[in-house]
Amino acid sequence: MRIKGDIIRTVRKQKKLSQVTLAAGICTQGTVSNIENKNVCDSLEILDAICKRLNLSLESVLDDNDEKKLTSILNHVEELCNTFKHKEAHSLLKSTSVNVSDFQNRELEVRWFYFMGITNLLGYNNTTDSLFYFYRADELGDSNSVYAILSVNSLGIVYEMADELDKAQVYYEKSIDMLNRMTIKMPIEATKIFFNTAKFYSLIKNYETAFKLASKGMALNKSYQSLYMLDLLAYEASFNDFMRSPDLKVPDFSSAKVFATFNDNQSLLDVIANDEKTLTH
Question: Which superkingdom (predicted)?
Fold first, then answer.
Protein backbone atom coordinates (compact mmCIF):
# COMPACT_ATOMS: atom_id res chain seq x y z
CA MET A 1 0.00 0.00 0.00
CA ARG A 2 1.10 3.57 -0.64
CA ILE A 3 1.69 5.63 2.49
CA LYS A 4 3.03 9.01 3.58
CA GLY A 5 6.42 7.93 4.86
CA ASP A 6 7.55 11.50 5.49
CA ILE A 7 4.96 11.85 8.28
CA ILE A 8 6.28 8.75 10.04
CA ARG A 9 9.90 9.88 9.62
CA THR A 10 9.12 13.38 10.97
CA VAL A 11 7.24 12.14 14.04
CA ARG A 12 9.87 9.46 14.72
CA LYS A 13 12.59 12.11 14.77
CA GLN A 14 10.48 14.43 16.92
CA LYS A 15 10.23 11.62 19.46
CA LYS A 16 14.01 11.03 19.16
CA LEU A 17 13.55 7.39 18.11
CA SER A 18 15.91 5.55 15.80
CA GLN A 19 14.52 3.31 13.07
CA VAL A 20 15.75 0.32 15.07
CA THR A 21 13.91 1.49 18.20
CA LEU A 22 10.71 2.17 16.30
CA ALA A 23 10.87 -1.26 14.68
CA ALA A 24 11.58 -3.19 17.91
CA GLY A 25 9.03 -5.95 18.45
CA ILE A 26 7.09 -4.92 15.33
CA CYS A 27 9.19 -5.44 12.21
CA THR A 28 12.71 -5.07 10.83
CA GLN A 29 14.63 -1.82 10.54
CA GLY A 30 14.55 -2.35 6.77
CA THR A 31 10.75 -2.27 6.81
CA VAL A 32 10.79 1.09 8.60
CA SER A 33 13.32 2.35 6.05
CA ASN A 34 11.03 1.28 3.18
CA ILE A 35 8.10 3.01 4.85
CA GLU A 36 9.97 6.28 5.31
CA ASN A 37 11.96 6.38 2.08
CA LYS A 38 9.92 4.40 -0.45
CA ASN A 39 6.44 5.19 0.94
CA VAL A 40 5.35 1.54 0.89
CA CYS A 41 4.32 -1.04 3.48
CA ASP A 42 3.01 -4.52 2.68
CA SER A 43 1.38 -5.15 6.06
CA LEU A 44 -1.47 -3.14 7.56
CA GLU A 45 -0.78 -4.77 10.94
CA ILE A 46 2.82 -3.54 10.95
CA LEU A 47 1.81 -0.05 9.83
CA ASP A 48 -0.91 0.08 12.50
CA ALA A 49 1.54 -0.98 15.22
CA ILE A 50 4.05 1.66 14.13
CA CYS A 51 1.34 4.34 14.10
CA LYS A 52 0.24 3.37 17.61
CA ARG A 53 3.83 3.60 18.85
CA LEU A 54 4.05 7.10 17.37
CA ASN A 55 0.54 8.11 18.52
CA LEU A 56 -0.54 8.60 14.91
CA SER A 57 -3.86 7.59 13.39
CA LEU A 58 -3.63 5.01 10.63
CA GLU A 59 -5.76 7.19 8.34
CA SER A 60 -3.28 10.08 8.61
CA VAL A 61 -0.49 8.13 6.89
CA LEU A 62 -2.44 6.31 4.17
CA ASP A 63 -1.85 7.82 0.74
CA ASP A 64 -4.73 6.17 -1.10
CA ASN A 65 -8.11 7.92 -0.82
CA ASP A 66 -10.14 4.72 -1.25
CA GLU A 67 -8.00 2.84 1.26
CA LYS A 68 -8.28 5.74 3.65
CA LYS A 69 -12.06 5.80 3.21
CA LEU A 70 -12.42 2.05 3.80
CA THR A 71 -10.07 2.12 6.80
CA SER A 72 -12.22 4.84 8.35
CA ILE A 73 -15.37 2.80 7.69
CA LEU A 74 -13.85 -0.35 9.18
CA ASN A 75 -12.71 1.57 12.27
CA HIS A 76 -16.31 2.73 12.75
CA VAL A 77 -17.58 -0.81 12.15
CA GLU A 78 -15.20 -2.11 14.80
CA GLU A 79 -16.44 0.47 17.31
CA LEU A 80 -20.03 -0.62 16.63
CA CYS A 81 -19.15 -4.30 17.02
CA ASN A 82 -17.37 -3.59 20.31
CA THR A 83 -20.67 -2.22 21.65
CA PHE A 84 -22.65 -5.19 20.21
CA LYS A 85 -24.32 -3.10 17.45
CA HIS A 86 -23.69 -5.76 14.83
CA LYS A 87 -26.76 -5.03 12.68
CA GLU A 88 -25.83 -1.36 12.42
CA ALA A 89 -22.24 -2.33 11.60
CA HIS A 90 -23.44 -4.73 8.90
CA SER A 91 -25.59 -2.01 7.31
CA LEU A 92 -22.58 0.31 7.22
CA LEU A 93 -20.47 -2.35 5.50
CA LYS A 94 -23.17 -3.03 2.92
CA SER A 95 -23.64 0.66 2.17
CA THR A 96 -20.03 1.39 1.21
CA SER A 97 -19.31 1.94 -2.48
CA VAL A 98 -15.63 0.99 -2.10
CA ASN A 99 -14.73 -2.29 -3.80
CA VAL A 100 -12.23 -3.97 -1.50
CA SER A 101 -11.22 -6.51 -4.16
CA ASP A 102 -9.72 -3.67 -6.25
CA PHE A 103 -7.02 -3.01 -3.64
CA GLN A 104 -3.51 -4.36 -3.50
CA ASN A 105 -3.84 -4.13 0.28
CA ARG A 106 -4.44 -7.73 1.35
CA GLU A 107 -4.76 -6.92 5.05
CA LEU A 108 -7.58 -4.46 4.41
CA GLU A 109 -9.39 -7.17 2.46
CA VAL A 110 -8.91 -9.67 5.30
CA ARG A 111 -10.28 -7.17 7.79
CA TRP A 112 -13.33 -6.52 5.60
CA PHE A 113 -14.07 -10.25 5.28
CA TYR A 114 -13.79 -10.70 9.06
CA PHE A 115 -16.28 -7.93 9.79
CA MET A 116 -18.67 -9.14 7.12
CA GLY A 117 -18.52 -12.53 8.83
CA ILE A 118 -18.95 -11.38 12.41
CA THR A 119 -21.78 -8.96 11.61
CA ASN A 120 -23.64 -11.66 9.67
CA LEU A 121 -23.14 -14.11 12.52
CA LEU A 122 -23.90 -11.97 15.58
CA GLY A 123 -26.24 -9.53 13.87
CA TYR A 124 -28.40 -11.96 11.92
CA ASN A 125 -27.35 -15.47 13.02
CA ASN A 126 -26.48 -16.08 9.36
CA THR A 127 -24.04 -18.97 9.69
CA THR A 128 -23.90 -19.78 5.96
CA ASP A 129 -22.56 -16.39 4.89
CA SER A 130 -20.41 -15.99 8.00
CA LEU A 131 -18.65 -19.30 7.33
CA PHE A 132 -17.79 -18.14 3.81
CA TYR A 133 -16.37 -14.84 5.01
CA PHE A 134 -14.37 -16.37 7.88
CA TYR A 135 -12.84 -19.08 5.69
CA ARG A 136 -11.97 -16.47 3.04
CA ALA A 137 -10.26 -14.24 5.59
CA ASP A 138 -8.26 -17.20 6.92
CA GLU A 139 -7.24 -18.10 3.36
CA LEU A 140 -6.08 -14.58 2.50
CA GLY A 141 -4.36 -13.67 5.76
CA ASP A 142 -0.74 -14.31 6.67
CA SER A 143 0.68 -15.51 9.99
CA ASN A 144 0.70 -11.98 11.45
CA SER A 145 -2.86 -11.06 10.43
CA VAL A 146 -4.88 -10.63 13.61
CA TYR A 147 -8.13 -10.41 11.62
CA ALA A 148 -7.40 -13.74 9.94
CA ILE A 149 -6.80 -15.21 13.40
CA LEU A 150 -10.01 -13.59 14.66
CA SER A 151 -11.81 -15.24 11.74
CA VAL A 152 -10.49 -18.67 12.77
CA ASN A 153 -11.55 -17.92 16.34
CA SER A 154 -14.98 -16.91 15.08
CA LEU A 155 -15.34 -20.26 13.34
CA GLY A 156 -15.23 -21.61 16.88
CA ILE A 157 -18.15 -19.32 17.76
CA VAL A 158 -20.13 -20.62 14.76
CA TYR A 159 -19.74 -24.25 15.84
CA GLU A 160 -20.31 -23.41 19.50
CA MET A 161 -23.62 -21.76 18.56
CA ALA A 162 -24.50 -24.95 16.64
CA ASP A 163 -23.65 -26.98 19.77
CA GLU A 164 -20.86 -28.77 17.89
CA LEU A 165 -18.41 -28.30 20.73
CA ASP A 166 -15.71 -30.66 19.48
CA LYS A 167 -15.45 -28.72 16.20
CA ALA A 168 -15.58 -25.44 18.09
CA GLN A 169 -12.66 -26.47 20.28
CA VAL A 170 -10.52 -27.25 17.21
CA TYR A 171 -10.87 -23.68 15.93
CA TYR A 172 -10.49 -22.02 19.32
CA GLU A 173 -7.26 -23.94 19.90
CA LYS A 174 -6.04 -23.19 16.38
CA SER A 175 -6.56 -19.45 16.89
CA ILE A 176 -4.56 -19.46 20.14
CA ASP A 177 -1.77 -21.41 18.44
CA MET A 178 -1.76 -18.87 15.59
CA LEU A 179 -1.46 -16.03 18.11
CA ASN A 180 1.50 -17.71 19.77
CA ARG A 181 3.28 -18.00 16.41
CA MET A 182 2.99 -14.31 15.50
CA THR A 183 6.36 -12.70 14.80
CA ILE A 184 5.21 -9.15 15.58
CA LYS A 185 3.99 -7.73 18.86
CA MET A 186 0.56 -9.17 19.57
CA PRO A 187 -2.06 -6.55 18.62
CA ILE A 188 -4.58 -5.38 21.23
CA GLU A 189 -7.38 -6.85 19.05
CA ALA A 190 -6.12 -10.28 20.13
CA THR A 191 -7.94 -9.55 23.40
CA LYS A 192 -11.12 -10.78 21.69
CA ILE A 193 -9.49 -14.12 20.91
CA PHE A 194 -8.45 -14.64 24.52
CA PHE A 195 -11.92 -13.66 25.77
CA ASN A 196 -13.90 -15.80 23.32
CA THR A 197 -11.70 -18.81 23.97
CA ALA A 198 -11.75 -18.37 27.75
CA LYS A 199 -15.53 -18.18 27.65
CA PHE A 200 -15.68 -21.42 25.65
CA TYR A 201 -13.41 -23.30 28.06
CA SER A 202 -15.52 -22.06 30.93
CA LEU A 203 -18.57 -23.44 29.12
CA ILE A 204 -17.00 -26.91 28.90
CA LYS A 205 -15.92 -26.63 32.55
CA ASN A 206 -12.18 -26.46 31.88
CA TYR A 207 -11.87 -23.66 34.41
CA GLU A 208 -8.08 -23.80 34.70
CA THR A 209 -7.55 -23.12 30.98
CA ALA A 210 -10.28 -20.49 30.96
CA PHE A 211 -8.61 -18.65 33.86
CA LYS A 212 -5.19 -18.71 32.16
CA LEU A 213 -6.61 -17.36 28.88
CA ALA A 214 -8.52 -14.55 30.59
CA SER A 215 -5.35 -13.65 32.51
CA LYS A 216 -3.37 -13.49 29.26
CA GLY A 217 -5.96 -11.13 27.83
CA MET A 218 -5.60 -8.90 30.88
CA ALA A 219 -1.81 -9.00 30.58
CA LEU A 220 -2.09 -7.93 26.93
CA ASN A 221 -4.18 -4.93 28.03
CA LYS A 222 -1.53 -4.06 30.59
CA SER A 223 1.19 -4.09 27.92
CA TYR A 224 -0.82 -1.50 25.96
CA GLN A 225 -2.02 0.39 29.07
CA SER A 226 -5.51 -0.30 27.74
CA LEU A 227 -9.00 -1.02 29.12
CA TYR A 228 -10.07 -2.92 25.99
CA MET A 229 -12.69 -5.52 27.10
CA LEU A 230 -11.03 -5.48 30.51
CA ASP A 231 -14.34 -5.67 32.38
CA LEU A 232 -15.29 -8.89 30.58
CA LEU A 233 -11.83 -10.40 30.98
CA ALA A 234 -11.73 -9.54 34.68
CA TYR A 235 -15.10 -11.22 35.15
CA GLU A 236 -13.96 -14.38 33.34
CA ALA A 237 -10.74 -14.47 35.37
CA SER A 238 -12.61 -14.08 38.68
CA PHE A 239 -15.38 -16.54 37.84
CA ASN A 240 -13.03 -19.25 36.60
CA ASP A 241 -10.57 -18.70 39.45
CA PHE A 242 -13.44 -19.36 41.85
CA MET A 243 -14.65 -22.42 39.95
CA ARG A 244 -11.17 -23.98 39.87
CA SER A 245 -10.36 -23.19 43.53
CA PRO A 246 -12.45 -25.10 46.10
CA ASP A 247 -10.69 -23.23 48.92
CA LEU A 248 -12.26 -19.92 47.82
CA LYS A 249 -15.52 -19.35 49.68
CA VAL A 250 -16.85 -16.67 47.31
CA PRO A 251 -15.64 -15.19 44.01
CA ASP A 252 -13.81 -11.86 44.06
CA PHE A 253 -15.46 -9.68 41.44
CA SER A 254 -14.11 -6.39 42.79
CA SER A 255 -11.93 -5.58 39.75
CA ALA A 256 -14.61 -6.65 37.28
CA LYS A 257 -17.14 -4.38 39.02
CA VAL A 258 -14.79 -1.40 38.84
CA PHE A 259 -14.13 -1.87 35.12
CA ALA A 260 -17.79 -2.62 34.35
CA THR A 261 -18.86 0.53 36.18
CA PHE A 262 -16.24 2.56 34.30
CA ASN A 263 -17.48 1.13 30.98
CA ASP A 264 -21.14 1.56 31.99
CA ASN A 265 -21.65 -2.16 31.34
CA GLN A 266 -24.89 -2.65 33.25
CA SER A 267 -25.54 -6.11 31.81
CA LEU A 268 -22.27 -7.39 33.25
CA LEU A 269 -22.97 -5.70 36.58
CA ASP A 270 -26.30 -7.56 36.66
CA VAL A 271 -24.54 -10.89 35.99
CA ILE A 272 -22.05 -10.18 38.77
CA ALA A 273 -24.83 -9.25 41.22
CA ASN A 274 -26.58 -12.54 40.49
CA ASP A 275 -23.36 -14.55 40.83
CA GLU A 276 -22.57 -12.92 44.17
CA LYS A 277 -25.94 -14.14 45.46
CA THR A 278 -25.65 -17.69 44.17
CA LEU A 279 -21.97 -18.71 43.98
CA THR A 280 -20.52 -20.18 47.16
CA HIS A 281 -18.34 -23.17 48.08
Answer: Bacteria
Q: Which domain holds residue 56?
A: 5-61
57, part of any domain = yes
pLDDT at 105 over 90: no
**pLDDT recorded at residue 211:** 98
The Cα-based distances of 107 to 46, 57, 71, 131, 176 in angstroms read 10, 17, 11, 19, 20
Instruction: Tell me what pLDDT residue 138 has.
Output: 95
> How many domains, the chain?
2
- 259 CA to centre of own chain: 19
Tell me the one-letter amino acid at 100: V
**Cβ burial, residue 238 (10 Å; 0-12/13-18/19+):** buried
Q: Is 170 helix (H, G, I), strand (E, B) or coil?
A: helix
Q: Which of 16, 42, 61 is the last residue of a domain?
A: 61
**Continuous segment of H or E residues that includes residue 191:** helix 191-203
Percent of all residues in the chain with a pLDDT value above 90, rounded to a whole number: 81
pTM for this predicted structure:
0.81
